[in-house]
Amino acid sequence: MQSKAGGGSSGSSSCESTPSTSSDTKSIKDDEVLFQVPSRLNHISKNKVTLAELKRRIAAPECLNSSFLGIYLRLAKTKEVGKELRDNLAKHGISLPSGRRKGIQNTVFTCLVEEEATQLGRDMHTLVQQHYPVRPLIDMAARKSVSHPEERRRDLIGAIRILDELNGMFTELQTPLATRIQNNVPIHNELEVGMNHFSLITHTFGPINQSTWCNAFLNYAKMSLAMYQGRGMEQANPQYN
């Protein structure tokens, strides 16, 4: 089923989970790079935008229209930019109707290409691992805690169990977005649908970032437990009963 521009007074068209494609074009690979976009965060580099990424950005949930695609791709602002972009996409088998509305509200992530958002997530992960002040935070919590040491130890063991469980789920669900779509990984339950939606609107930054902070809190809990067990500030691996 193809999405067509609305002919009514609204001037908008529906947005589908998969963009309309043409069978008339020759075999076109989704990993073909169509644009080299100057980075918005790193002014000395450019990011690649593939056909697959454009398909994702045009489809639900974002449903970017030609006007916003021009901004996202850093194209020159001209009266014909929308038509030129639609014509270019048509050559690659994608139908982008004019006059349709975007699917969701703009955020700072809307202007980021996937490669840039992914790198932002990786850089955040590295910085948290190397520079987040876990030990001072543990010291502050220890000074403020009014719990008995044994009660505190039990609380920390419980927190570690929960965070380990959550971290395992994050790892299981964090299949790279492009690979997930390319390999047609089935999305068959509410959690996977929600995580896929979250990944699509943050362009993989969200799933990477949630794992980063889950690991940081897990490290905090393990180091705190080590302190209460008299092992100094070294990271512990407690045995659960």
UniProtKB/TrEMBL annotation:
Sequence ranges of Gly residues compositional bias: 1-10
GO molecular function: DNA-binding transcription factor activity, RNA polymerase II-specific; RNA polymerase II transcription regulatory region sequence-specific DNA binding
One cellular-component annotation, GO: nucleus
Chief location category: nucleus
Annotated InterPro entries: TF_AP2 (IPR004979), TF_AP2_C (IPR013854)
Keyword S-adenosyl-L-methionine tagged: no
Extent of Low complexity compositional bias: 11-25
Keywords: DNA-binding, Nucleus, Transcription, Transcription regulation
Positions of the UniProt region annotated as Disordered: 1-29
Chain ranges of the Transcription factor AP-2 C-terminal domain: 38-222
GO biological-process terms attached to the record: regulation of cell population proliferation
One Pfam family in the UniProt entry: TF_AP-2
Location relative to the cell: Nucleus
Protein family: Belongs to the AP-2 family.
Protein name in the entry: Transcription factor AP-2
